[in-house]
Design goal:
Helices cover about 15% and strands about 30% of the residues. The chain is α+β, with helices and mostly antiparallel strands and about 260 residues long. It has two domains: about 1-140, no CATH class; about 145-250, no CATH class.
Length: about 260
């Protein structure tokens, strides 16, 4: 998942302020639900502009996530599963009751805040959740459970991290098969990123404050012939940190209902 410079998408549509209810078309209920349609009580729109455009299978490529901190924000080629993960900060394996097909429903999303409010990640989350409620008839709530994972701690000898440059206001990050790179991120973000190559949830227990620039190279879990170190060795040698097995509390997303198609722009 790449989170660097954004892609400008066409076809913006103003999401007008609405009250009352709407009825959503093309209903696909979550497992165990028999809802034929899904009335949603609408509050004022989460965004001044919100365009959600389905992406045909032939046009799909790598998912791309735009830059935080601007009044506009876009996501290109993202699945509904990734939209839920992004909006609730919950990994897909911790969805409960979600229907099949979340990974096959792919969209381009472009939004603009009202009054040019900077869309940081923390500002985006509640707005994206509200948009999912309005456009996908989402009905869901979060919970917690304890699972086997890793605690991210400082290794013996201390951390070897590069403080972020003070002039950089916005962070960026991406994870590739054998590399993790980020600028201007805190340890909580790093822990979340490490969950993918580590294969289990990671919680920050370093006690380190501030933001850092990170570059980490490691062997893909599926490549036994790689000359790069394992993710665990790489974290210790390159960052001066350590991934220790631990029981960690993770957030779950209990999905009661969601459509696999969005209402029209």
């Amino acid at each position: 998942m790449r989170a660097s410079g954004g892609i400008v998408l066409a076809g913006l549509c103003v999401l007008a302020a609405l009250s009352g209810t709407i009825r959503c078309g093309a209903q696909v209920a979550a497992a165990g639900s028999t809802l034929a349609d899904c009335p949603v009580d609408l509050q004022p729109p989460a965004f001044e502009v919100a365009a959600v455009t389905p992406v045909a299978e032939k046009d799909r490529g790598a998912a791309k996530i735009g830059q935080y901190g601007l009044p506009t924000f876009d996501m290109h080629g993202v699945s509904l599963s990734l939209l839920l993960t992004f909006s609730f900060d919950v990994r897909a394996e911790n969805f409960i009751g979600a229907p099949h097909g979340l990974d096959n429903a792919v969209f381009d999303v472009q939004v603009k805040s009202a009054n040019d409010i900077p869309l940081t990640y923390e500002a985006l989350k509640p707005r994206m959740q509200q948009m999912l409620e309005q456009r996908f008839c989402l009905k869901a709530h979060t919970g917690t459970r304890d699972v086997s994972g890793y605690a991210l701690v400082a290794a013996k000898g201390g951390a070897k991290l590069t403080p972020a440059h003070e002039s950089v206001e916005r962070g960026s990050a991406y994870i590739m098969q054998d590399e993790l790179s980020a600028t201007n991120v805190d340890m909580g973000v790093l822990a979340s990123m490490l969950a993918s190559p580590a294969g289990r949830p990671v919680k920050d227990q370093t006690g380190l404050k501030g933001k850092y620039d990170i570059k980490l190279q490691f062997a893909p879990a599926t490549d036994a012939e790689s000359t790069l170190p394992s993710i665990f060795t790489a974290v210790k040698e390159q960052l001066g940190l350590e991934l220790r097995p631990a029981q960690v509390s993770v957030t779950t997303l209990i999905v009661e209902h969601v459509n696999l198609t969005a209402t029209e722009n």
